[in-house]
TrEMBL record:
Belongs to the FGGY kinase family. The lineage of its organism: Eukaryota, Fungi, Dikarya, Ascomycota, Pezizomycotina. One of its GO terms (cellular component) is mitochondrion. CDD domains: ASKHA_NBD_FGGY_GK1-3-like. Residues 518-540 have a biased composition (Basic and acidic residues). It comes from the Eukaryota. This is glycerol kinase. One of its GO terms (biological process) is glycerol metabolic process. It comes from Friedmanniomyces endolithicus. SUPFAM superfamilies: Actin-like ATPase domain. Keywords: ATP-binding, Glycerol metabolism, Kinase, Nucleotide-binding, Transferase. Its EC number is 2.7.1.30. NCBIfam families: glycerol_kin, PRK00047.1. GO terms for molecular function: ATP binding; glycerol kinase activity. The keyword Kinase applies.
């Protein structure tokens, strides 16, 4: 008797620090995984770039690596029915439509070089109207100011723009374009969860907003830039097929920005469900159903998913620094060589010893949106040791999550009963316990934490008919959860949070002051120059 046919779905997870390819079975279990880190480029303070070609190569390597494991374990690649893509959002790539070549390194979502453009736009045009059209305030975070910076500062980009051949895309668009073979097939699409991170899309119509394009046009006509067609997150036809490698000819059928994918992977399908993903940054998404809620408390409105033309929305609290804070202690300060060692270091002290670390390396995102802050430590004394710094780094993301949850409750009028978590930093039990202590509700961590990749697999699985309804996924990844209950005395957690609030207030304005200083330096240089001229004149 023939055995039951095996069925699998592949998932490309292109994150900020690494790419992965996972192959899931129909129970939502990954049976093969390959992961590869790629280069983080920091050309100047506050700048963060990726090489777009290296990103594509890393994805191709991951597909190859995972497939080797899959086939070695006796599976046939023909049992892979579809592939989903999930990706770091906002990160901006520009290329020439005639050659398919990237014209500059990708500007990563964390990059703050465009804070000046954001400030100028706000001053020229006001900051009130964007939230209601695209769900986001003007800041360095969305793709819009990154594209403006490239147009303004990179001659090569400007020339291609003037010739009418400039393509803009987020990483989902770049990957589908390149994996399909580039200009020849010219698959040039984005899904609404990604497009809602650019500031170009009307959050209700899920199409580009003429008003936003005009508003953001600055010195350039953004309508002259080729922008990808916005299509559904799950679709049989529009995402094309891999053009090379061991899965050549296999169809891509799903696409979700990574934070939306994590919500889907945590099965946050219904209004009222939420998840918090502690990766490079940390992002809390709260499903608000079929209506977008425009925040009045510092949150963003985003698309959670659009599987069938009936989009589901989310309120989002974005934190720029989470795991990247841990990496900073490892790579920049030499604290240790492994992430889990940072947690061990934090456990070596009983508390933060009065230290608060506002990890505003990219300014502070939600719910504060302070773009003139940089990372600042408060409360350093002779008592402070490395353990306190490690602890304060883990605590920073928990404090910011608490502030986001408070804002979310005000916007939605609904208090969460529990918070589902995932992402690399959720491996830290100390961090998750601190989170529970600060927010006072249970923190629920699944056993299988590749929920982002699972979300993209679910999108592709829906389009290919592997799964047909949300109900079929109810039992996926429910066994072996860890629940962290609040243990700290309420007065103590309130005291800690109050101190954090004070530190946030005190971190404001640092960059403005620095610019002022730079202004004085310029003045000082001018004075010195004029003195030199006077002196040389006098000696003649
Ligand atoms: N045990 C741990 N304690 C603290 N941080 C951790 C731990 N394990 C992983 N991390 C952090 O998680 C991050 C990676 O998470 P991941 O979800 O893979 O991120 P991304 O998808 O953004 O690349 C890294 O910054 C890493 O330092
Ligand atoms: O790399 P992550 O997982 O922190 O996610 C990046 C986000 O999509 C940026 O908005």
């Amino acid at each position: 008797m023939a055995g039951k046919e095996e069925v699998f779905v592949g998932s490309i997870d292109q994150g900020t620090t690494s790419s992965r390819f996972l192959i899931f079975d129909t129970a939502g279990e990954p049976v093969a995984v390959h992961q590869e880190e790629f280069t983080q480029i920091y050309p100047n303070p506050g700048w963060h770039e990726h090489d777009p070609e290296e990103i594509v190569r890393s994805v191709e390597n991951c597909i190859e690596g995972a497939l080797k494991i899959f086939e070695k374990d006796g599976h046939s690649k023909d049992s892979i029915k579809a592939i989903g893509i999930t990706n770091q959002r906002e990160t901006t790539v520009v290329w020439d439509t005639t050659t398919g070549e990237a014209l500059h390194n990708a500007i990563v979502w964390t990059d703050t070089r465009t804070a000046g453009i954001a400030r100028e736009l706000k001053a020229q045009k006001g900051s009130d109207k964007t939230m209601n059209i695209c769900g986001e305030p003007i800041s360095s975070y969305p793709s819009a100011t990154k594209l403006l910076w490239l147009l303004k500062n990179v001659e090569k980009v400007r020339k291609v723009y003037e010739a009418g051949n400039l393509a803009f895309g987020t990483i989902d668009t770049w990957l589908t374009y390149k994996l399909n073979g580039g200009p020849e097939k010219n698959i040039f699409v984005s899904d609404p969860t990604n497009a809602s991170r650019t500031m170009f899309m009307d959050i209700r119509k899920l199409q580009y907003s003429d008003e936003m394009l005009e508003f953001l046009s600055y010195e350039f006509d953004l309508k002259k830039v080729h922008m990808p067609k916005i299509v559904r997150s799950a679709d049989k036809e529009v995402y094309g097929k891999l053009s090379s490698g061991p899965l050549k000819g296999f169809p891509i059928m799903g696409c979700l920005g990574d934070q939306s994918a994590a919500l889907v992977g945590q099965k946050g399908f219904e209004a009222g469900s939420a998840k918090n993903t502690y990766g490079t940054g940390c992002f809390l998404l709260y499903n608000t159903g079929d209506k977008p809620i425009i925040s009045t408390h510092g949150l963003l409105t985003t698309v959670a998913f659009d599987f069938d033309g009936k989009p589901v929305y989310a309120l989002e609290g974005s934190i720029a620094v989470a795991g990247s804070g841990v990496k900073f202690l490892m790579n920049n300060l030499g604290f240790s060589q492994a992430s889990h060692k940072i947690t061990e270091l934090a456990e070596s002290v009983p508390d933060n010893g009065g230290l608060v670390f506002v990890t505003a390396f990219s300014g502070l995102f939600a719910p504060y949106w302070i773009d003139d802050a940089h990372g600042t430590m408060f409360g350093i004394t002779h008592h402070t040791e490395r353990g306190h710094i490690a602890r304060a780094t883990l605590e920073a993301v928990c404090f910011q999550t608490k502030a986001i949850l408070d804002a979310m409750q005000k916007d939605s009028g609904h208090a969460l009963k529990e918070l589902k978590v995932d992402g690399g930093m959720s491996n830290s039990a100390l961090c998750m316990q601190t989170q529970a202590d600060l927010v006072g509700i249970p923190i629920v961590r699944p056993k299988m934490r590749e929920t982002t990749a699972l979300g993209a697999a679910i999108a592709a699985g829906f389009a290919s008919g592997v799964w047909k309804s949300f109900d079929e996924l109810r039992e996926v990844n429910t066994v072996g959860e860890t629940v962290f209950e609040a243990k700290m005395e309420k007065g103590e957690s309130e005291r800690m949070f109050k101190r954090w609030g004070r530190a946030v207030q005190m971190s404001k304005g640092w960059l403005a002051e620095e610019e002022e200083l730079e202004g004085h330096q310029e003045e000082a240089r001018e004075i010195k120059e004029s003195i030199k001229e006077d002196e040389s004149g006098a000696s003649k």
